[in-house]
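User: Please predict the structure of the protein below. I'd like the answer in structure-token form so I can feed it into my own downstream comparison script.

Assistant: Understood. Taking the following sequence of 430 residues as input:
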Amino acid sequence: MTDYVFDSKGKTFTGEMTVPGDKSISHRSVMLGSIAEGTTTVEGFLLGEDCLSTIRCMSELGVTIERDGEHVTIHGNGLKGLTEPKTVLDVGNSGTTARLIIGLLSGQPFYSVISGDRSLNKRPMDRVTKPLKNMGGTFYGRENGRYAPLSIVGGALKAIHYQSPVASAQVKSSLVLAGLQASGETTIEEPHLSRDHTERMLRAFGVTIETEGTTHRVKGGQTLTATHIRVPGDFSSAAFFIAAALITPGSELIIKNVGINPTRTGLLTVLENMGASIELLNQREENFEPVADLHIKGQSLKATTVSGEVIPRLIDEIPILALIASQAEGTTVIKDAEELRVKETDRIQTVCEELTKIGVQIEPTPDGMIIQGQPRTSLKGGRVKSHGDHRIGMMLGVAAVLTDQPLILEEGEAIAVSFPGFYDFFTKNK
């Protein structure tokens, strides 16, 4: 376990910077490239532990993958060209790898086993195995397939119409990957629109997938054709520097080449409601994904209520939003975010515990949290803990700009899951 010391009081954030490649898009580029016909090249791949888990698993399934820094070359085997792994597929801490690969392997004609680290093996997998069983998938695991380690007996699948109780890109993507291998047309309905990186990237690979509102349809038997993927900067990583610039007077920062997919940028909507003015410069589209440069200035903010359809669009940003809310005038209420309780940690409880340690007035609720804003009030330094959760770790790193003494972050190495260079980026940016 590694301690990271953040000594950042009085720091401002100015100039230009970039953030690592988008985590969600990096995962999907390798998985879809592996089942495509031909050679796919990926530029700007995120070299975080989670995405490297996806490379490792697809390699174990017989795919040749070459990596030269952030440039990845995938020699696709086609949808029917994967081979039975000779060992357990280790997904590490990556829920995305686990849930998407379950859908992919459910239609393959062989046996496989997935497992992860202690945290991953506590996260529920039945949200994908239950509907996949209705398609004909066979799974064996702890608590009737609820938790990994999970055995997958692949075979013939049939299309289903599934009404998902949660707006989850992982659930939707898992079923879409199974649907590509099923007989007939698979339909997935969501209560709200979740991230749509899978749908966009499948279109880049030549697949027809229809979306109407929150309903998605994909026909089985389609072929993926190799392509070139340019991965934009990860909005969820950019969010920590958006926050740092907003809450430090005198900051003026431009974050270049950031993905602004509307299913991911709910934080921008909420921050606008709080009085922030963030400019989107040089807007463009690459591989069906919208991209822009973000221009942020330090400014005063007011409290808000966050609930409903915006929650799936900022679910990963809620930890850093809680910190931002601590610097806004008034009481911010976050609701409808039960999904946070089954992330890398119970993020509702963990965010409240760790921010309380440093003096934030915050309390958990069953589906969110309530934060009493204390702008212009110094927080307390001392020891805090990531609990093995990269987003909790980075949120606490940003909090150090507000503390009277340095923050000592226990288990700081968890940050490498999605932003290996965060500590250097954060401590060296003047």
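That's the full token string. Residues 23-34 form the longest helix (12 residues).
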